[in-house]
UniProtKB/TrEMBL annotation:
<keyword id="KW-0479">Metal-binding</keyword>
<keyword id="KW-0863">Zinc-finger</keyword>
<feature type="zinc finger region" description="TRAF-type">
    <location>
        <begin position="101"/>
        <end position="144"/>
    </location>
</feature>
<feature type="domain" description="RING-type">
    <location>
        <begin position="18"/>
        <end position="56"/>
    </location>
</feature>
<dbReference type="InterPro" id="IPR001841">
    <property type="entry name" value="Znf_RING"/>
</dbReference>
<dbReference type="Pfam" id="PF13923">
    <property type="entry name" value="zf-C3HC4_2"/>
</dbReference>
<dbReference type="InterPro" id="IPR001293">
    <property type="entry name" value="Znf_TRAF"/>
</dbReference>
<keyword id="KW-0175">Coiled coil</keyword>
<dbReference type="GO" id="GO:0043122">
    <property type="term" value="P:regulation of canonical NF-kappaB signal transduction"/>
</dbReference>
<feature type="coiled-coil region">
    <location>
        <begin position="199"/>
        <end position="254"/>
    </location>
</feature>
<protein>
    <submittedName>
        <fullName>RING finger 151-like</fullName>
    </submittedName>
</protein>
<keyword id="KW-0862">Zinc</keyword>
<dbReference type="InterPro" id="IPR013083">
    <property type="entry name" value="Znf_RING/FYVE/PHD"/>
</dbReference>
<dbReference type="InterPro" id="IPR017907">
    <property type="entry name" value="Znf_RING_CS"/>
</dbReference>
<dbReference type="GO" id="GO:0008270">
    <property type="term" value="F:zinc ion binding"/>
</dbReference>
<feature type="domain" description="TRAF-type">
    <location>
        <begin position="101"/>
        <end position="144"/>
    </location>
</feature>
Length: 288
């Protein structure tokens, strides 16, 4: 059912009325033929019919859609009185905010929350009723914490109640302890598996580093051996150079003596001059 049109202030467009109950739309739904209905009205109609109640076009529940936005906006802007107007509420609000107001309305009728109490009153009188309600619960005056609802509850055994409460607390602590223990064991197992995986990865990396180190050491030893060989070659070259220099000096001296005696230079002088030019060039040696 929709909202009673008598509760609204001002003009209400005909298109905002339910085609079945003729009240203002509540939880509106729209058919493909653009006729609008209250959700409860059209669902009840389609239980026994399979067409639109207005123009008899075929209609199923799956065909229903939310109201067009512009119609929904017009509907939400309508001004309506609170349903508690007969109890003294003078509030007039938009239909969009009606539910929020009526939920908190001080004139709303409500029942007592205490078990067994049949009293009904306005929401504004709730605190006053709870203060004098015969069915309200009170704690034991002896301090055991037992909730006293009826006169028979005054005869309860405080020691028995405290023991019961203690047993409940002990059971709760045991359950919480078991839950905590299981959670910690689960975390430890997870961390243990993670550490094992990490250890395996680190071990593989260490083995790879050892292999790389072995190759580097082999390369270093090869370089050192090559360097020693080059040094030996250099020393041998220096020794041969010295011997050649001594030989050249002896040949040059002999040539000068023969020249001073007027003897023509032998053909060997030209190779000696070539050796002399070789002597002036520094020998290139590559050291690795």
């Amino acid at each position: 059912m929709g909202y009673d049109i008598e509760r609204f202030l001002g003009y209400v467009n005909e298109g905002l009325l339910c085609c079945i109950c003729r009240d203002v739309l509540e939880d509106p739904l729209q058919a493909p033929c653009e006729h609008a209905f209250c959700a409860s009205c059209i669902h009840g109609w389609l239980v026994h019919h399979n067409n639109c109640p207005e123009d008899r076009h075929p209609l199923a529940v799956t065909d229903l859609r939310p109201l067009h936005r512009y119609m929904r906006n017009d509907l939400n802007r309508l001004q309506i009185q609170c349903r508690n107007v007969s109890c003294g509420c003078a509030m007039v609000c938009s239909l969009e905010s009606l539910d929020r107001h009526e939920r908190d309305c001080e004139h709303r009728r409500m029942s007592c929350m205490n078990a067994g109490c049949p009293a009904q009153f306005e929401r504004r009188n709730l605190d006053g009723h709870l203060a004098v309600c015969e069915h309200r619960s009170r704690e034991c005056p002896n301090g055991c914490g037992f909730a006293i609802i009826t006169a028979e509850d005054l005869q309860h055994n405080c020691i028995a109640e405290l023991r019961t409460e203690l047993e409940l607390l002990r059971s709760e602590m045991i359950c919480r302890g078991e839950e905590t223990k299981q959670e910690m064991e689960s975390r430890l197992d997870s961390q243990r598996r993670h550490m094992v995986q990490k250890e395996s990865i680190l071990q593989s990396e260490i083995e790879e580093l050892k292999s790389q180190m072995s190759r580097l050491m082999a390369d270093v030893r090869a370089l050192l051996a090559s360097e020693r060989q080059h040094r030996q070659d250099i020393e041998q070259a220096d020794l041969e150079k010295k011997e050649l220099m001594e030989l050249l000096k002896g040949l040059q001296k002999e040539c000068r003596l023969k020249t001073s005696d007027g003897i023509q230079k032998p053909a060997i002088v030209r190779p000696l001059m070539r050796l002399e030019s070789i002597k002036r060039k520094p020998k290139e040696v590559t050291i690795i």
